[in-house]
Amino acid sequence: MAGRSSATAGLLGRQLKAIQKGNDLPGISCGLVRDDNMFEWEVMLMLDDDCKYYGGGNFCALLKFPDTYPMSPPKMIFQNPVPFHPNIYPDGTLCISILHPPGDDQYGYEAAGERWSPVQTPETILLSVISLLNSPNDESPANVEAATMFRAEKEGKNKDFKKRCRKCVRESLGED
Amino acid sequence: MPPPNTPEEGLPEVDGPSRINSPGSSNSPNLDSTTSTPTLNFQALEYVDPVDQELICPICRDPLLDPYTTVCEHTFCLECICKAHAISHDCPTDRTPIHFPTDITKAAKIVRNQLDSLRVRCPYSTEGCNEICSRSQVEDHVTKLCIFAPVDCPDDACTKKVCRRDAARNECLHFTMPCEHCERPVECLSMQRHIDHDCPKSHQPCQHCSLKFPRSALEDHESECDDAMIPCDHAGVGCSVSVKQRELPVHLRSCPYTLLEKLGSLVTEQRDKITQLEKRDREMERRLKSLEFHTMHPSCSEYPRSRAIASSTTADGMGEEAALDEALRSNASTGGVPPPFESMDQYLLALYESAESKMDNLQKSLNDLEGRQTVMLLNETMPIKEQLAEMRSNIGAQGMHVRWLMNLRIQERARNAAASAMSGMGGGMSGLGSDSHGDPEDGRGFGRRLSDSLRENPPRL
Ligand SMILES: [Zn+2]
Ligand SMILES: [Zn+2]
Ligand SMILES: [Zn+2]
Ligand SMILES: [Zn+2]
Ligand SMILES: [Zn+2]
Ligand SMILES: [Zn+2]
Ligand SMILES: [Zn+2]
């Protein structure tokens, strides 16, 4: 197992370096939680103002890679303050189809084409995350309250969802 | 506690993951067959050159290893696609359903060849091997040749590994002995490493600062020791000061050559220009001398030459040059003027130069003359030509007049002849015979003959 892990660690190290060197992910910075553990990344997401609900927010998340990466997907867990979002569990775990293994039938409504595949990279994951923050998916709610409020706001009933999101953004900036 | 850096620890992943048994894997190199030869972990290879993106496996992001292509024409390492297939039966790139073993085939020969020729470093480069070879040859190198690769200890009783170079001594070196410097027990095999890197007693003093360092680090330290004497940075432009490395910044602040260094390129440029000017100056001086000589002794301009020719013809065996020399000397002694030329060569050169300039002048005036001649010729011939053309046209006009007059005359004659014939007929037939009689008017004889011919072929009017 040690040999396999070291190959995976090498792959992750190269992918981390590529992200840190490249400019393909504006507003995102990645680093290791601990220098001796290549399998746990810390990701800072500085969302730009185009993002309707979370623009201006600074959110922090952990990317946890399994030993079997890239055969199995990593997990992404937002740290406090967790964004109030239909697809993020209150404990911070992100629910996004690209991080679901293809064999898993628990999410039957998802097209297999959106699921994890070993050719995915941290970069493609983070791009999907940004897109999910821009347009939440209310069909598979991880946070039922957020999903209900989001749907109500989409139907023009009130602006409660946006208010909750802005509060989150202010918290993320340490203002509340 | 084993001493650090024993050979076992230094080995980079000797026991790679055993290969997955899958279709086609019989073609992949079987590295686990014998225990005595070192095995090679292809995934840990270090590639010397950047590898083309097309040759990178989309799963492990390393250069493809034993590449296989799917029915949807995506290529992966055999190991990678097998692992992915164990989780999902879809192509990782485009999710086309894939069934083993029918839906994957060995990648194209050209791809395999390209991969085989990628240059890699020997995996034992950290042990000291500098070998760089193609990926297809690295296995041979490690299993048969590399003297740094670990092999079983030659002593059958010993289960430890030893690098191939040490194994050649054919004895087990896995025993400990005290270090000659620090007297600590060290395994015989790693004694050299201990002395070079770790032994606290074998440290050598730096020749500049007398601090002690392990032998392996001494050279590095000495090259950058603060106490080492180094020449000033501006030695190139003339500073001869040598200072200790640490004092260099202090010296540089006060070094008078700093300014010069900045002007360095300017200085060299000017130096070049000066040498050029000096050369030209010498030439000018010589010319000046020659001119001076000519102006002060206008009669002498021919003197040395004529004398030289005369003496060379008279004095046998005496070379022309010697004669010229003599001429120069005599000239100097008689005139009291310093000799205009420092040597015979210079005099000849001056003569040559003046001849050349005269030649140039001649050439120029010749060209001038030629030009003038051409212009003159043109000037003179042009009116003649014009006159000729005029005369030709005049002649043509006159010829036309003549022809017109002649025609007029002929017609007139013909009419006259016709009229006289009519009158002859009116005068009776007697007139018929009058023709054979001689015509009383001589001048009309020619006209008669003409009219005869006209009568034979009368003009139709
Ligand atoms: Zn691969
Ligand atoms: Zn495919
Ligand atoms: Zn080698
Ligand atoms: Zn031994
Ligand atoms: Zn020692
Ligand atoms: Zn020193
Ligand atoms: Zn100096």
Automatic annotation (TrEMBL), chain A:
Q: Which InterPro entries match?
A: Ub_conjugating_enzyme (IPR050113), UBC (IPR000608), UBQ-conjugating_AS (IPR023313), UBQ-conjugating_enzyme/RWD (IPR016135)
GO MF, one term, reads: ATP binding
CDD domains, sorted: UBCc_UBE2G1
Output the Pfam families linked to this UniProt entry: UQ_con
Q: Does the keyword ATP-binding apply?
A: yes
Please tell me whether the keyword Ribonucleoprotein is annotated for this protein: no
Q: Which Gene3D superfamilies match?
A: Ubiquitin Conjugating Enzyme
Ranges for domain UBC core: 7-174
Which key words are in the record? ATP-binding, Nucleotide-binding, Transferase, Ubl conjugation pathway
Indicate the transmembrane segments per the record: none
Q: Which residues form the active site?
A: C95 (glycyl thioester intermediate)
Belongs to which family? Belongs to the ubiquitin-conjugating enzyme family.
What protein am I looking at? Ubiquitin-conjugating enzyme E2 2
Native organism is Zalerion maritima
From TrEMBL, chain B:
Q: Where is this region: Disordered?
A: 1-36, 419-461
TRAF-type domain residues = 194-248
- Polar residues bias locations: 19-36
TRAF-type ZnF:
194-248
Record bears the keyword Membrane: no
Instruction: Provide ranges: composition bias, Basic and acidic residues.
Output: 436-461
Q: What is this protein called?
A: Uncharacterized protein
